[in-house]
Amino acid sequence: MKPLNRAQESVLLLVAGALYPLALAPLSLWPLTFFSISIFFWRLQQQPAKQLLFKAMVFGSGLFLSGVSWVYVSMYDHGSLSMPVAFVGTVIFCLFLAFVFALPFTLNALIPQNPLSLMLGLPAIWVIGEWIRSWLFTGFPWLYAGYSLTDHWLNGWAPIVGVLGLSYLVASGAAALTQLALRRKDSCLAPGPTITLALIASLVIGGYALQKIDWTTATDRTLSVVLIQPNIQQANRWSPSQRESILEQLSEQTEPYWGADIIIWPEGAIPALPAAVMEYLIEVDNLAKVNQTTLFTGIPTRDYHSRHIFNSMMGLGESRGQYDKTRLVPAGEYIPFEETLRGLNSFFDLPMSSFSSGASNQPLLSAKGHQIATAICYEIAYPNLVAKTTLGASMIMTVSNDAWFGDSMAPQQHMQMARMRAIENAKPLMRGTNNGITALVDYRGNIYQQLEQFTAGELEGVIRPRQGQTPFALFGSWPTVIAALLCCAVLILIRKLNRIKKT
After folding, report:
1. 366 φ, ψ (degrees, to nearest 5)
2. Domain ranges of the chain
3. How far, in Å, CA of 301 to CA of 280, rounded?
4. Nearest partner of 375 among 327, 413, 342, 339, judged by Cα
């Protein structure tokens, strides 16, 4: 094959990166992850650290410019930024993510450059990179390769290894395909096609067999659930002049369903602190009590001792309790370097952009004797965070306001991540949103009821709580992360020992 020049290689990597998000929701063309990552791994072999960083940056730029371009909608449509500023802001954000993505791949310069080492090392580096993106600067755990397997046989591994483990499988498959395509007959370290294909087949068959295992046990009775989707326009949500009409709409939509076991209003459904709407809250609370209903609503709350404001879910009626969001969205819910940025542009003065993080160990919300793991919006993207709360819970509740993202791919990506949390923990999931996607998801991650996006509506259904824990709920992503770190450490050590022997 004729060698590629720098421009050709850059275009190839940029296109390969741009194809990668098409394997995730909403298109879910899952083979593209293997194809995209295979091309990427192909171009990383026998390269010094600087070239590795550059090539990974190019691939990552295509990946994030294609996969999270919906940030532009938040900045331009709802952040009051001009079109050029929103465009530049989106590009800068995506390039920053590409840089964070690229940094771990410089490790490839430290491992042996033989086929077997690359088959082991590159997938480990990929997983280390995804793990870093889950916590660096509060984290942005988006576009993980494992989500491409949400509807594939291989998702049977998710209750054991989680989405990072699935990413490991995807990256390993891509690395194997790369080495098969480049296989040299004279290389004693090149894995044979028969062995490689047999390993891939065993993983796929194993995933299919694991899908048949019930890691958790269904409880005796189902609960009736109603999810309210008000479809409030983002521009009106925090307008004081719209507050009464919003509260009235919530009441009107809920009125026919008093008597359900659980009613859920979405994130920030009540657009005011409790003190400002206390009469309304008391009225709703009394209605829920009379009808023996538990109502959960999104509402901002304040701790009057610390003066901190939280993005919360509050229980009314038959349930008491409050959950405060612990993972906040930068610029949306809190402003990094607030003293410097606040006031520079209206984007940094959005309503409710001064939230504080909730405590790490909060009591679970409950309904009808069942504990509920709660995740508000962005939190559902964190596998370990959700796994930790599901240990004592029999179902998962997540609420969001995806109106920030308009008719982009973001709500579909967000829904896919929520479905993976249900699969990882083998617990049913209730997802209530302002304008979609509002849905009920079973413990295998299948959506069995859903409302149409961008409409006001009520989703009435049933959910069957489940008891027990999956291996992933018990151990989280740590076994996968530790395996990846150990793999890289061993390969780096082997290369150093080989160099010592040569000298």
Report:
1. -145, 160
2. 6-214+477-502, 217-469
3. 15
4. 327
Count of Cβ atoms closer than 10 Å to residue 444 Cβ = 16
SS3 380: helix
Helix (H, G, I), strand (E, B) or coil at 116: helix
- DSSP for 302-364 reads E-TTT--EEEEEEEEET--EEEE--SPPBTTTB-TTHHHHBTTBGGGG-TT----PPPSS-PP
Euclidean distance between CA atoms 250 and 230, whole angstroms: 7
Q: Would you please indicate which residues are annotated as catalytic (active-site) residues? A: 267, 325, 377
Cα–Cα distance between 422 and 373 in angstroms, integer?
11
- DSSP codes of every residue in 135-178: TGGG----S-GGGGGTTSGGGGGHHHHHHHHHHHHHHHHHHHHH
In whole angstroms, give the CA distance from residue 250 to residue 227.
11
Whether domain 217-469 has CATH 3.50.50.60: the reply is: no
* Tokens 């009441």, located at residue: 251
Q: What is the pLDDT of residues 197-221, one digit of tens each?
A: 888 889 999 999 999 999 999 999 9
Torsion from C-alpha of 268, 274, 277, 282, nearest 10 degrees: 110
The HSE-up count of residue 101 (CA atoms within 13 Å, CB side) is 26
| Token representation of residue 241 | 């002049």
pLDDT at 1: 60
User: In which order are the strands placed within the sheet that holds 294-302?
Assistant: 321-324, 309-317, 294-302, 262-264, 223-229, 457-463
DSSP 182-242: H--TT-TTSPPHHHHHHHHHHHHHHHHHHTT---SEE-SS-EEEEEEE----GGGTT-GGG
246 CB-near residues (< 8 Å, 6+ apart): 230, 232, 236, 237, 270, 271
Tokens 């450059």 belong to 113
State residue 424's pLDDT score.
98
Cα gap 88→67, rounded to integer Å: 16
Distances in Å between the alpha carbon of 25 and those of 15, 66, 68, 274, 484? 18, 13, 12, 37, 26
Q: Is-above-0.85 flag for pTM?
A: yes
130 with 141: CB under 8 angstroms?
A: yes
- Tell me which residues of the chain have a pLDDT lower than 50: 185-186, 337-338, 341-348
Residue in the structure block whose two tokens are 């709580």 = 465
Q: Of all helices (H) and strands (E), which one includes residue 128? A: helix 115-132
Q: What is each CA distance from 425 to 229, 279, 473, in whole angstroms?
A: 26, 39, 6
Beta bridge partner(s), residue 373: 396
Phi first, then psi, for residue 145 (nearest 5°) are -60, -35
Q: What are the CA-CA distances from residue 84 to residues 72, 75, 106 (Å)?
A: 10, 11, 33
> Which is nearest to 401 in space by CA: 336, 293, 329?
329
From the number of C-beta atoms within 10 Å of its C-beta (0-12, 13-18, 19+), residue 447 rates as middle
